[in-house]
Amino acid sequence: MNRIYRFLVLPLAVLAAAEASGQQAPQLGEASLDKVVKAMTLEEKAMLVVGTGMESMASGSFAVVGQVAKYVPGAAGSTFGIERLGVPPMVLADGPAGLRISPTREGTDDTFYCTHFPIGTLLSSTWNTELVESVGKAIGEEVHDYGVDVLLGPALNIQRHPLCGRNFEYYSEDPLLTGKIAASYVRGVQSNGVGTSIKHFAVNNQETNRQNNDARVSERALREIYLKGFEITVKEADPWTIMSSYNLINGVPASENKDLLTTVLRDEWGYKGMVMTDWFGGTDPVQQVWAGNDLLEPGTMDQYNKVLEGVKNGSISMADLDRNVKNILNLALRTPRFRNEPFSNKPDLETHAEMTRQSALEGMVLLKNDNGTLPLRNVRNVALFGYTSYNFIAGGTGSGNVNRAYTVSLLDGLRNVGFNVDDRLEADYEKCRPAATDGIFDAEVRPAELLPAADVLADMAADNDVAVITLGRISGEFRDRSSDDFMITPSEKAMLDAVTAAFHKVGKKVVVILNIGGVIETASWKDVPDAILCAWQAGQEGGNSVADILSGKESPSGKLPMTFPVYLSDAASSDNFPIDQESAIFVDGTTGAHQDKNVRNIDYTEYQEGIYVGYRWFEKQGLNVSYPFGYGLSYTEFSYSDPVARPRAEGGFTASVTVTNTGDTAGKEVVEVYVAAPKGGLDKPVKELKAFAKTRELQPGESQTLEFEVSAYELASFDEAQDRWETAAGEYIVHFGSSSADIRAKAAFSNARPSAYAVTPGLFERK
Ligand code: BGC
User: Fibronectin type III-like domain: from which residue to which, for each copy (predicted)?
Assistant: First the structure.
C-alpha cells in the first residue's frame, strides 16, 4: 500500500515568505476556510491557482512553477500542496473512456494499466443511465486505486458536425441525452470519493484551430443546445470540477468569460465546485482570475508571475483571487489525498474487463438485419474480412485514449465464443497492420483494403457459412476528420462488392461491422450487405462484445445518438465547419493563431443553424436521412400501447406507455419521448426529445409500462428578446418513438398556464 499524502517542494522564495507569516498556521479542514486563506501569502495563493506544470515540461521549453508532480506518472496535471497549512496537492488525469496514466514506471517491472471502456458515443447509444452509472463507478474505482483525485472527463460537447475529431468522446447531437448520460457517468465516478471534470465548457465543437476559434453563436442556441447538457449535469450530479474550453464564445475566450463561468454557471445554476482551464487554454491570467476560472492548468511560470503582478498592480482584486483560492481549497477538502487514503495501485482489471465487455453490448446499434441474418444461428464457419477485424479499434486518439493491457480483435472474439474463423487470409491481414503513429495525438494511417483474388473468395464462400467484414475509422484530438474519412474508400467498396458477390452467389450472407468513432456515409452502400452492426469503438474487449452480439448471447438494444445523413453537405453546419482544413494546432501548447485572423470556419465559425442541430434540422427541412436519430433494430419486435400524457398541477406533464415484446427472443427497448409544442410564439423544432427510458430485458410476450415526468422548465424554449425561458400555454403532443422517425404512439395534454423563467439580461453579446 502506498501512502499518498506527500507534498511538492515549493520554491524557496515562497517558503521563506510563508515562514515570515507566522508559525501557528491554521490547518485546512480544522480552521475555517477564511482563516486558512487569510494565513496564505500572496505567493502561496498564486501558486495554488496555477498548476505545477506537466511532466513533459520539466526539461522542456517551459518555465515551470516549482517541481513537476511525480505522484502518478502520466497524469495530465497537478496542483501544489502547501504543507504548513495542511493543503494537499491534487492529481488530475484524463479521461473519459477510462483513466489515462503511464502503464510503466521507472524502477519497477510492475505495470499500471487501466481498463479501456467503450467510448462516450457508445455509452450514450445505450440510452441506459443506470448502466452508464455503473461504468462510471468502475472507472472511478481505477481513479481511486491509482491515487488520482480528479478524472478529466466526461466530455460532453454537442456533436454539431459529423467530422469533429473528438465526437467519439462526446455523447450526442441532442442536449437532453447528453446531459442525462453525463450526469449518470459523473454520479458513478464520484461515488468512489474522487472527482470528475466535465468538459469542455463550452461550444468546443471543432478541433481545427480550437485554441483560437471564435464560436459565434446565438444566446438561444447556447442555452438550448450547447449549455443544456452542462446545466443538466451540474444540477443533477454536482461534478466536483468543470474544465473551460479553448475556444472563444462571441469573441471572449471561454476561460476568460465571466458570463459563462460566473453568471450562468454559479449565479444561475448554483454551481459550487471548481473551474479549471483546458491545458494551456486562454491567454490572459488576469482575465481568467476575474472571470472565475479558478485554476490554470497545467500551469506555467509566466502565469504565476502574471497573477502576482496582477494583484500588485491592482488588475486582479484580492477578493477575486481569494474566491478562486477557496474554490480550490473546497475541492481539496473532498479529495482522497486530503483524507490521506491509501491506494492499492492494483485495480480489479479482471472484473472491469468483464464489465466493459458487457456494457458495450447495450450500445451496439443494429442498423440493418434483412431476413434475420443476425444472430448467427446455425453458423459455425466464418470468413473474416477487413484489416480492422484483425486489429480492432478500442477508442480514439489523444487524451481520450487509455493505456490498456490489450485489445481483443474481432478475430479473437469470434474464436472465443466458438466460431471457426477461416485462417486463409490471416497472415496477409496481420502483415498489413496500420502504420505506426508518430505521437499519441496522431491517428494511425490505415492501409488500403486487401482485395482477395476471385478464386480465393470463391473457395472461402464455398467453405464458410457467412462473411463478416469490418470497416474501421479512427480519429482523435487535435484534428477534425476529413470528408474522405466520412466516405467509404474505393478499396473498401471494392472489397465489400467482391465479398458480397462471392457469398451471395452461393446463397450465403454478408455482415458488416462498423468499428467507428463517428458518423460515416452509409447511404451509397448499405443495400449491399445483409446486415450492418454499428459496434462503435467498444473498448479493450471490443471483439468479444461484438462476438456476443453476433452469436445472439444478447440482442442489440442500442439506438443512434445522432443522425446518419445521406450526404455530408446535408448536415446543418456543413457550410460553417472547417471541412478538410489544416488543423492549425500546435501540440506544445503554443497557440496556432492564424496570421490573418479572419478566416471563416478557422478563426471564427458562425453557428448559423442556431438551434437546428441534428434531427432538429433534418426534420425542419424534411431531408431524407440514411439512419435517423434514435434509430436501432433488435433481434425481437416491440409493440407500444396505452399511451398516456397528463398535465401536472405545477406545470409540465407525466406520461406513460406500455411496451410489449412481440417477437420470439428476449430484448430491451428504448422509448424516446419527443414533444411537439403548440404553434405560435417562438419558432420551435418539429419535435424535441424531452425524456427517454429503457425497458428491462423483456421475454417474448412480456410487457413493461414506462413512466416519464417532465417539468415546465424542461419544456421551455429560450426567448432572447425577453431574456427568459418560456413554456407556452396550449396543446402539446407527446410522441413515443422507437426512433425519431418511427413514432409508435401519441398522446396530448393541454398546458393551461404559460410560465416563464427570467435569466440575467445582456449575456454573451459579441465582443
Ligand atoms: C484536452 C483535454 C484534456 C487535457 C489534458 C487537452 O488537450 O483538450 O480534454 O483533458 O488536454 O490532457
Answer: 669-740
How far out from the chain centre does Cα 48 lie? 29
Q: What tens digit of pLDDT does each residue of 730-745 get? A: 999 999 999 999 999 9
Ligand 1 centroid distance, CA of 51 (Å): 14
Q: Which of 600, 604, 599, 585 is nearest to 280 (CA)?
A: 585
Cell readout for 499 is 465479398
Nearest CA to ligand 1 atom 5: 76
Cβ(634)–Cβ(571) below 8 Å: no
Nearest to 439 by CA among 398, 474, 482: 398
C-alpha to C-alpha distance for 192 and 410, rounded to whole angstroms: 33
Residue with cell string 467453405 = 463
Q: Using CA atoms, how far apart are residues 209 and 591, in angstroms rounded to an integer? A: 9
pLDDT by residue (tens digit) across 657-695?
A: 999 999 999 999 999 999 999 998 899 999 999 999 999
The pLDDT of residue 437 is above 60: no
Give the DSSP H or E segment for 167: none
365 CA → ligand 1 middle, Å: 29
Of ligand 1's listed atoms, the one at least distance from the Cα of 400 is: 9
Strand-pair category, 241-244 with 248-249: unpaired
Confidence tier at 66 by pLDDT (50, 70, 90): very low
d(CA 240, CA 197): 7
76 within ligand 1 shell (Cβ under 6 A): yes
What backbone torsions phi and psi does residue 430 show, to the nearest 5 degrees? -65, -30
Integer-rounded Cα radius of gyration of the chain: 26
DSSP string, 316-385: S-HHHHHHHHHHHHHHHHHSTTTTT--B-S---HHHHHHHHHHHHHTT-EEEEEGGG--S-TT--EEEEE
Cell of 21: 507569516
Q: How far, rounded to the nearest angstrom, does the alpha carbon of residue 396 sit from its chain's CA centroid? A: 11
- The mean per-residue pLDDT over the stretch 4-13 comes to 42
Tell me: pLDDT of 278 over 50.
yes
Query: Measured between alpha carbons, how far is 97 from 650 in angstroms, rounded to an integer?
Result: 39
Report pTM: 0.96
Residue whose entry in the numeric block shows the C-alpha cell 481539496: 332
- Residues for the chain: how many in total? 767
What residues pair up with 633 in beta bridges, in sequence order? 366
CA-closest candidate to residue 155, choices 165, 146, 163: 165
Which atom of ligand 1 is nearest to 153's Cα? Answer: 10
Q: What is the H or E stretch that residue 131 is in? A: helix 129-145
Calculate mean pLDDT across residues 494-521. 98
Contact 383, 149 (CB under 8 A): no
Q: How far apart are CA 294 and CA 735, in angstroms?
A: 43
Pocket-testing residue among 201, 242, 441, 477, ligand 1, by greatest number of atoms within 8 A of Cβ: 477
Residue nearest to ligand 1 atom 7, measured at CA: 279
Our mutation pick for probing the ligand 1 site, out of 143, 156, 278, counting the most ligand atoms within 8 A of Cβ, is: 278
Q: Tell me how far apart the alpha carbons of residues 2 and 574 are, in angstroms, rounded to a whole number.
A: 52
Question: Rounded distance, CA 50 to CA 668, Å?
Answer: 48
The dihedral through the CA atoms of 113, 117, 121, 122 has a sign that is positive
The pLDDT score that the predictor gives to residue 435 is 61
Distance 399 CA to ligand 1 centre (A): 6
DSSP state of 395: S
Report the separation in Å between the CA atom of 717 and the middle of ligand 1, taken as the mean of its atom positions: 32
pLDDT at residue 305, as a whole number: 96
b/e burial code for range 37-74 (CB count within 10 A of at least 16 → b): bebbbebbbbbbbbbbbbbebeeeebebbbbbbebbeb
Q: DSSP for 557-575?
A: ----SS-EESSGGGSTTGG
